[in-house]
Amino acid sequence: MGFRRRGPLLPLLLLLLGLVATALAADSASASEGDADPLYRACFEECQRTGTLKEDSIKHCVVPTDDQPADKAWYAHEPLYLQWKEWNCNSECRYHCMMEREQEREELGLGPVKYHGKWPLKRASVFQEPLSAALSALTLLVQFNGWLSFFLLLSYKLPLRPETHATYYEYTGLWHINALLAMNSWFWCAIYHSCDTAWTEKLYLSSAAAFLGYSLILAILRTSNLRDEASRVMVAAPILAFVTTHILYLNFYELDKGLNMKVCTVISVAQLLLWTVWAAITRHPSRLKVIFVAIGGVLSLYLEAHDVPPRWGYVDGHAICLAMAIPLSYLWWSFAKEDAEMRTAAIMKKKR
Predict the structure, then answer these.
(1) Do 174 and 256 reside in the same domain of the chain?
(2) What's the gap between Cα 98 and its chain centre?
(3) What is the number of alpha carbons within 13 Å of residue 310 lying toward its C-beta?
(4) 145 and 67 in one domain?
(5) 159: number of Cβ within 10 Å
(6) Using CB atoms within 10 A of its CB, is residue 84 exposed (0-12), middle (13-18) or buried (19+)?
(7) Same domain, 220 and 77
(8) pLDDT 10s digits, 226-282
(9) What pTM did the predictor assign?
(10) Is residue 214 located within the same domain as residue 346?
(11) One domain for residues 148 and 206
């Protein structure tokens, strides 16, 4: 059977390897074309100095007329439930000058450019990136629903071991941990896209790295069909050590987003390669779902690696990746449930 019956998978494997090369060669420089623009710089400096932009007052640059000290950050004068945004004169001037400059560029027929390493995206109320925040929240909901249906399937529908009342499926605990890390990652993804601050960014990047690292462990254990604890520990220990070191580096030494992108891309490609090869050589009834998820994962990595610029002020390449994550999450939990049913049926058949 082998790969000769799965010819279309060869381009997928080659594309995965190409994505690794793209990620490793990516320029992680922090300077951006937008914030180097003299017109943007002049607008920003004028806004900070006067607290106005074209005769419009910038709220966070106006000192309140209460008894609070004038040198206190503006967001500290707001209600407690709004202080988490940490919007101040500096961030507000950056945002409004960025939007002003992008409008001028659009009138000249020029495309968007990055400012301070990020694409110019429009806000909506208290949400800094409303579309990405909404899509992240939807994916979180899909993840929770998938895990809940998986839990109910194994606990109440499939047979349990009579002596211990444990499930027959050997990977139950691994999928439960995967669900917790996935939901934690998507929760902080939604929070980060709602409000981009130093602490939300660290939590977002750290939780995503933890989830991807554990997903690689799950991929190795399931595709290799490892069931004994000693083998699982030997596989998991070095990966957990590496991911933990990486997270500590990001949080306590340097928040190197370029390095983090390379690490996460390599981890993602590694697990996609494992699942793709496994789907190509196995007779699992849900192998097509694995292949579809792998194809979707490759497309997401491609969009992230090539950093597609925004359209209509709200939709960029990252938002498209977040939209793709919704059906991919549903398919992935569908595969997990069918895998549990198949393995349980196989074990029960052997016991007869």
Answers:
(1) yes
(2) 25
(3) 20
(4) no
(5) 13
(6) middle
(7) no
(8) 888 899 999 999 999 999 999 999 999 998 888 998 899 999 989 999 999 999 888
(9) 0.85
(10) yes
(11) yes
Q: Is 335 inside any structural domain?
A: yes
Number of domains in the chain: 2
Residues whose CB is less than 8 angstroms from the CB of residue 172 and which lie 6 or more positions away in sequence, other chains included: 154, 166, 340
Residues 233, 175 within the same domain = yes
Token pair 């998986």 is found at 150
Regarding whether 100 and 132 lie in a shared domain, the answer is no
What the block records as the tokens of 337 is 């449930």
Per-residue pLDDT band at 4 (split at 50, 70, 90): very low
Q: What is the pLDDT of residues 60-91, one digit of tens each?
A: 675 444 544 444 444 445 555 455 555 667 77
298: domain CATH number is: 1.20.1070
Q: Print the domain residue range for 264.
A: 124-351
Report the alpha-carbon distance of residue 126 to residue 61 in Å, rounded.
Answer: 18
DSSP one-letter string for 11-71: HHHHHHHHHHHHHHH-------TTTT-HHHHHHHHHHHHHSEETTEE-GGGSPPSSSS-TT
Residues in the chain: 352
Angle between helices 287-306 and 9-25 (to 10 degrees): 30
- Exposure string of 110-123, with b = 16+ CB inside 10 Å and e = fewer, is eebbbbeeebbbbe
Query: What ranges in 59-115 are assigned the alpha helix state H?
Result: 80-83, 89-107
CA distance 239 to 220: 11
